[in-house]
Amino acid sequence: MLAKRIIPCLDVTEGRVVKGTNFVNLKDAGDPVELAKRYDQEGADELVFLDITASSDKRYILRDLVERTAEQVFIPFTVGGGINDIDTIRDILVAGADKVSINTAAVKTPHLISDASRMFGAQCIVVAIDAKAVTSQTVFNTKISSEIRLDDSSQWEVFTHGGRKTTGIDAVKWARYMVDLGAGEILLTSMDRDGTKSGYDVSLTKTIAQTVPVPVIASGGAGTITHIKEALEVCSAALLASLLHYRELTISEIKNNIKHISLPIRISV
Description:
The chain is an alpha/beta fold. Helix content is about 30%, strand content about 25%. It is built from ten helices and twelve strands.
């Protein structure tokens, strides 16, 4: 079994790391470059940098900030936000990223995933899925291909533009489709749990992890070490934000606890 990963997430807007609840009520959490350096030194396995308003603002990602952050880390570094074409992917990789995370653009132009995977390798291409539980008010969009659209059996819907827009797409079907096109990893965020500290949506995470043959990163809802353990029992990695940003837990505390339940994890010497 591959080692489980602990991955800090830097949600960035206007050059600062922020954290909110259910994708709203954002609060400042610090400088991304300084936080990245700290997490690298503390033993994080990877780092994720998401420019969370790039897509909704229809602007280019903060390249300079990506470059300065990459200079401070010596672990795999994933960058997402406003990435919508091959040239941008190439530019972000040249700026120092090891992987790119694509969400909104994957929904708009799915062939971007297959094109990028062929050009840069599947290991570089992470598809981010922001998913929310289907409610009785959800509109089942029949204009979307039956291969991916919501139906009466759907449990979770895909959202884009930083969680601002509905799609009518079934999250489980979408994950499978993206991997078929060439995604090498899925970054799965539960919008219902994001920032609540009530625990990851284990049902959502387990369902998708069992559906696709690539690593799945759980995101949204971590409040305790127990929550992290529960997620890592069903997927490959746990994404963390506020727990680390506000020093409620440290990476070493988390990893030592994970090690005690016999899950494989890398401990820094």
